[in-house]
Amino acid sequence: MPSRRRRSDRPHRFRRGVFLLPSLFTVANLFCGYSCVVYATRSDFDSAALFIAVAMVLDTLDGYLARLTNSSTAFGVELDSLADVVSFGLAPSVLAFTWGLWPLRRLGWAVGFLFVAGAAMRLARFNVQAKTTSVTSDKRYFVGMPSPAAAGVIASTIYLWPYGLQDRQSALPAIAMVLLPAFLMVSTIRFRSVKAIDVGWRRSYVGLILAAVGIALFVLHPRIALVILAYGYMGWSILTWAVGRLRKVPAPSNRRDSTVEVTPAPGAGE
Question: Which residues of 226-248 are buried (b: 16+ CB within 10 A; e: fewer)?
Fold first, then answer.
Protein backbone atom coordinates (compact mmCIF):
# COMPACT_ATOMS: atom_id res chain seq x y z
CA MET A 1 0.00 0.00 0.00
CA PRO A 2 2.70 2.61 0.80
CA SER A 3 4.42 1.93 -2.53
CA ARG A 4 1.12 2.43 -4.38
CA ARG A 5 0.55 5.73 -2.59
CA ARG A 6 4.01 6.94 -3.56
CA ARG A 7 3.39 6.05 -7.19
CA SER A 8 0.04 7.81 -7.16
CA ASP A 9 1.61 10.92 -5.63
CA ARG A 10 4.28 11.19 -8.33
CA PRO A 11 2.01 12.67 -11.06
CA HIS A 12 0.66 15.20 -8.56
CA ARG A 13 4.15 16.22 -7.46
CA PHE A 14 5.31 16.45 -11.08
CA ARG A 15 2.34 18.63 -11.95
CA ARG A 16 3.02 20.88 -8.97
CA GLY A 17 6.67 21.16 -10.04
CA VAL A 18 5.59 22.14 -13.55
CA PHE A 19 3.45 24.94 -12.14
CA LEU A 20 6.36 26.21 -10.04
CA LEU A 21 8.87 26.21 -12.91
CA PRO A 22 7.76 29.51 -14.57
CA SER A 23 7.66 31.19 -11.16
CA LEU A 24 11.24 30.08 -10.50
CA PHE A 25 12.34 31.87 -13.67
CA THR A 26 10.37 34.91 -12.53
CA VAL A 27 12.17 34.88 -9.17
CA ALA A 28 15.47 34.63 -11.04
CA ASN A 29 14.38 37.65 -13.07
CA LEU A 30 13.70 39.51 -9.81
CA PHE A 31 17.13 38.51 -8.51
CA CYS A 32 18.76 39.99 -11.62
CA GLY A 33 16.98 43.28 -11.03
CA TYR A 34 18.13 43.33 -7.41
CA SER A 35 21.69 42.44 -8.45
CA CYS A 36 21.67 45.27 -10.98
CA VAL A 37 20.88 47.75 -8.21
CA VAL A 38 23.64 46.33 -5.98
CA TYR A 39 26.29 46.43 -8.71
CA ALA A 40 25.18 49.91 -9.82
CA THR A 41 25.75 51.27 -6.30
CA ARG A 42 29.24 49.74 -6.45
CA SER A 43 29.89 51.55 -9.78
CA ASP A 44 30.31 48.22 -11.59
CA PHE A 45 28.20 49.37 -14.54
CA ASP A 46 29.32 46.57 -16.87
CA SER A 47 27.93 43.85 -14.62
CA ALA A 48 24.84 45.88 -13.73
CA ALA A 49 23.89 46.34 -17.39
CA LEU A 50 24.42 42.64 -18.10
CA PHE A 51 22.06 41.70 -15.28
CA ILE A 52 19.29 43.62 -17.06
CA ALA A 53 20.05 41.69 -20.25
CA VAL A 54 19.83 38.39 -18.35
CA ALA A 55 16.56 39.53 -16.78
CA MET A 56 15.15 40.15 -20.27
CA VAL A 57 16.00 36.59 -21.29
CA LEU A 58 14.46 35.15 -18.11
CA ASP A 59 11.33 37.25 -18.57
CA THR A 60 10.90 35.74 -22.03
CA LEU A 61 11.52 32.21 -20.80
CA ASP A 62 9.03 32.27 -17.93
CA GLY A 63 6.20 33.30 -20.23
CA TYR A 64 7.25 30.73 -22.81
CA LEU A 65 7.34 27.96 -20.21
CA ALA A 66 3.97 28.97 -18.81
CA ARG A 67 2.40 28.71 -22.26
CA LEU A 68 4.28 25.53 -23.14
CA THR A 69 3.25 23.68 -19.99
CA ASN A 70 -0.18 25.35 -19.77
CA SER A 71 0.67 26.32 -16.21
CA SER A 72 -0.21 30.01 -16.23
CA THR A 73 -1.78 31.10 -12.94
CA ALA A 74 -3.05 34.38 -11.51
CA PHE A 75 -0.26 34.25 -8.92
CA GLY A 76 2.34 33.84 -11.66
CA VAL A 77 0.95 36.79 -13.61
CA GLU A 78 1.06 39.10 -10.59
CA LEU A 79 4.52 37.91 -9.57
CA ASP A 80 5.79 38.50 -13.09
CA SER A 81 4.49 42.08 -13.08
CA LEU A 82 6.06 42.84 -9.70
CA ALA A 83 9.39 41.38 -10.84
CA ASP A 84 9.25 43.45 -14.03
CA VAL A 85 8.72 46.66 -12.04
CA VAL A 86 11.98 45.93 -10.21
CA SER A 87 14.05 44.57 -13.11
CA PHE A 88 12.82 46.91 -15.86
CA GLY A 89 11.71 49.92 -13.82
CA LEU A 90 13.66 50.43 -10.62
CA ALA A 91 16.93 48.77 -11.66
CA PRO A 92 17.43 50.74 -14.93
CA SER A 93 16.58 54.03 -13.23
CA VAL A 94 19.07 53.42 -10.39
CA LEU A 95 21.65 52.32 -12.95
CA ALA A 96 21.10 55.46 -15.04
CA PHE A 97 21.32 57.71 -11.97
CA THR A 98 24.52 56.20 -10.57
CA TRP A 99 26.05 56.12 -14.07
CA GLY A 100 25.32 59.60 -15.36
CA LEU A 101 22.37 61.42 -13.78
CA TRP A 102 23.90 62.03 -10.36
CA PRO A 103 25.69 65.29 -11.43
CA LEU A 104 22.24 66.77 -12.10
CA ARG A 105 21.25 66.19 -8.46
CA ARG A 106 17.52 66.79 -7.95
CA LEU A 107 16.87 66.90 -11.68
CA GLY A 108 18.54 63.50 -12.01
CA TRP A 109 16.37 62.14 -9.19
CA ALA A 110 13.24 63.39 -10.92
CA VAL A 111 14.23 61.94 -14.30
CA GLY A 112 14.96 58.55 -12.77
CA PHE A 113 11.65 58.56 -10.91
CA LEU A 114 9.75 59.32 -14.13
CA PHE A 115 11.20 56.17 -15.66
CA VAL A 116 10.10 54.07 -12.67
CA ALA A 117 6.61 55.59 -12.81
CA GLY A 118 6.38 55.02 -16.56
CA ALA A 119 7.33 51.35 -16.18
CA ALA A 120 4.82 50.83 -13.36
CA MET A 121 1.99 52.48 -15.31
CA ARG A 122 2.93 50.55 -18.45
CA LEU A 123 2.71 47.23 -16.63
CA ALA A 124 -0.51 48.18 -14.85
CA ARG A 125 -2.11 49.14 -18.16
CA PHE A 126 -0.93 45.91 -19.76
CA ASN A 127 -2.50 43.84 -16.98
CA VAL A 128 -5.80 45.67 -17.39
CA GLN A 129 -5.77 45.32 -21.17
CA ALA A 130 -4.89 41.63 -20.93
CA LYS A 131 -8.34 41.05 -19.40
CA THR A 132 -10.09 42.87 -22.26
CA THR A 133 -10.23 40.79 -25.42
CA SER A 134 -11.30 43.74 -27.58
CA VAL A 135 -8.11 45.64 -26.79
CA THR A 136 -5.68 42.77 -27.06
CA SER A 137 -7.24 41.15 -30.12
CA ASP A 138 -4.15 41.87 -32.20
CA LYS A 139 -1.37 39.91 -30.52
CA ARG A 140 1.20 41.23 -32.98
CA TYR A 141 1.49 44.61 -31.27
CA PHE A 142 1.98 46.13 -27.84
CA VAL A 143 0.31 49.40 -26.87
CA GLY A 144 3.25 51.45 -25.68
CA MET A 145 6.88 50.42 -25.54
CA PRO A 146 7.40 47.18 -23.57
CA SER A 147 9.26 47.77 -20.33
CA PRO A 148 12.06 45.26 -21.12
CA ALA A 149 12.77 47.09 -24.39
CA ALA A 150 12.79 50.44 -22.58
CA ALA A 151 15.20 49.06 -20.00
CA GLY A 152 17.30 47.67 -22.85
CA VAL A 153 17.84 51.17 -24.23
CA ILE A 154 19.40 52.30 -20.94
CA ALA A 155 21.34 49.07 -20.35
CA SER A 156 22.80 48.90 -23.87
CA THR A 157 23.90 52.54 -23.76
CA ILE A 158 25.64 52.09 -20.43
CA TYR A 159 27.15 48.79 -21.57
CA LEU A 160 28.61 50.61 -24.58
CA TRP A 161 30.10 53.35 -22.38
CA PRO A 162 30.52 51.91 -18.85
CA TYR A 163 32.85 54.66 -17.66
CA GLY A 164 30.13 56.95 -16.36
CA LEU A 165 29.51 60.68 -16.68
CA GLN A 166 31.27 62.98 -14.27
CA ASP A 167 30.02 66.52 -14.94
CA ARG A 168 26.76 68.31 -15.52
CA GLN A 169 27.33 69.17 -19.18
CA SER A 170 27.96 65.58 -20.22
CA ALA A 171 25.05 64.37 -18.07
CA LEU A 172 22.43 66.50 -19.82
CA PRO A 173 22.16 64.21 -22.92
CA ALA A 174 21.48 61.28 -20.57
CA ILE A 175 18.12 62.86 -19.77
CA ALA A 176 16.86 62.01 -23.27
CA MET A 177 18.15 58.44 -22.89
CA VAL A 178 15.89 58.01 -19.86
CA LEU A 179 12.88 60.20 -20.62
CA LEU A 180 12.26 59.09 -24.21
CA PRO A 181 11.73 55.39 -23.31
CA ALA A 182 9.76 56.48 -20.22
CA PHE A 183 7.24 58.47 -22.27
CA LEU A 184 7.10 55.80 -24.97
CA MET A 185 6.05 53.24 -22.36
CA VAL A 186 2.94 55.24 -21.45
CA SER A 187 2.21 56.31 -25.03
CA THR A 188 -0.32 54.71 -27.37
CA ILE A 189 2.25 53.99 -30.08
CA ARG A 190 2.06 50.39 -31.22
CA PHE A 191 5.27 48.39 -30.89
CA ARG A 192 5.62 45.19 -32.85
CA SER A 193 5.98 42.02 -30.83
CA VAL A 194 9.26 40.30 -31.63
CA LYS A 195 7.55 36.91 -31.46
CA ALA A 196 5.10 37.97 -34.19
CA ILE A 197 7.61 39.43 -36.65
CA ASP A 198 7.26 37.73 -40.03
CA VAL A 199 10.32 37.89 -42.25
CA GLY A 200 8.44 36.36 -45.18
CA TRP A 201 9.30 33.32 -47.27
CA ARG A 202 7.96 30.84 -44.76
CA ARG A 203 9.45 27.83 -46.58
CA SER A 204 12.95 29.31 -46.85
CA TYR A 205 15.79 29.76 -44.42
CA VAL A 206 15.72 33.56 -44.34
CA GLY A 207 14.91 33.65 -40.64
CA LEU A 208 17.81 31.35 -39.79
CA ILE A 209 20.19 33.38 -41.94
CA LEU A 210 19.14 36.62 -40.25
CA ALA A 211 19.58 34.98 -36.85
CA ALA A 212 23.06 33.76 -37.87
CA VAL A 213 24.02 37.27 -38.97
CA GLY A 214 22.78 38.68 -35.67
CA ILE A 215 24.76 36.11 -33.68
CA ALA A 216 27.89 36.86 -35.71
CA LEU A 217 27.55 40.60 -35.09
CA PHE A 218 26.96 39.98 -31.40
CA VAL A 219 30.08 37.82 -31.13
CA LEU A 220 32.25 40.32 -33.00
CA HIS A 221 30.99 43.53 -31.38
CA PRO A 222 28.53 42.72 -28.56
CA ARG A 223 28.37 46.27 -27.18
CA ILE A 224 27.62 47.84 -30.55
CA ALA A 225 25.21 45.05 -31.52
CA LEU A 226 23.12 45.53 -28.36
CA VAL A 227 22.88 49.29 -28.94
CA ILE A 228 21.80 48.73 -32.56
CA LEU A 229 19.11 46.27 -31.47
CA ALA A 230 17.76 48.48 -28.68
CA TYR A 231 17.71 51.77 -30.56
CA GLY A 232 16.73 50.11 -33.84
CA TYR A 233 13.60 48.62 -32.28
CA MET A 234 12.65 51.93 -30.70
CA GLY A 235 13.43 54.01 -33.79
CA TRP A 236 11.65 51.67 -36.20
CA SER A 237 8.47 51.75 -34.11
CA ILE A 238 8.49 55.55 -33.94
CA LEU A 239 9.12 55.82 -37.68
CA THR A 240 6.30 53.39 -38.46
CA TRP A 241 3.92 55.35 -36.23
CA ALA A 242 4.91 58.67 -37.83
CA VAL A 243 4.42 57.34 -41.36
CA GLY A 244 1.02 55.95 -40.40
CA ARG A 245 -0.07 59.29 -38.95
CA LEU A 246 1.03 61.15 -42.07
CA ARG A 247 -0.97 58.80 -44.29
CA LYS A 248 -4.13 59.39 -42.24
CA VAL A 249 -3.89 63.20 -42.41
CA PRO A 250 -6.39 64.42 -45.05
CA ALA A 251 -5.18 66.76 -47.76
CA PRO A 252 -5.96 70.45 -47.03
CA SER A 253 -8.81 71.84 -49.11
CA ASN A 254 -9.75 75.42 -49.96
CA ARG A 255 -13.08 76.38 -48.42
CA ARG A 256 -13.91 78.76 -51.24
CA ASP A 257 -13.54 76.00 -53.81
CA SER A 258 -15.23 73.30 -51.73
CA THR A 259 -18.33 75.30 -50.71
CA VAL A 260 -20.35 76.26 -53.74
CA GLU A 261 -23.71 77.91 -53.38
CA VAL A 262 -26.40 76.18 -55.38
CA THR A 263 -29.51 78.20 -56.26
CA PRO A 264 -32.57 76.30 -57.30
CA ALA A 265 -33.76 76.89 -60.84
CA PRO A 266 -36.95 78.84 -61.30
CA GLY A 267 -39.94 76.59 -61.18
CA ALA A 268 -38.02 73.60 -59.85
CA GLY A 269 -40.09 71.25 -57.70
CA GLU A 270 -39.17 70.10 -54.22
Answer: bbebbeebbeebbeebeeeeeee
Does 264 reside within a domain? no
Supply the pTM of this predicted model: 0.80
CA atoms of 39 and 148, how far apart (whole Å): 19
Query: Has residue 261 been placed in a domain?
Result: no
Q: What is the pLDDT of residues 102-142, one digit of tens each?
A: 999 999 999 999 999 999 999 999 888 877 755 445 677 88
Number of domains in the chain: 1
| Residue 15: CATH number of its domain | 1.20.120.1760
In a domain, 32, yes or no: yes
Report yes or no on 256 lying in a domain. no
pLDDT digits (tens, 9 = 90+) for 195-220: 555 545 455 566 677 778 778 888 88
Count Cα atoms within 13 angstroms, Cβ side, for 258: 5
Does 39 score more than 80 pLDDT? yes
Radius of gyration of the chain (CA): 25
**Residue range of the domain that includes 165:** 8-250
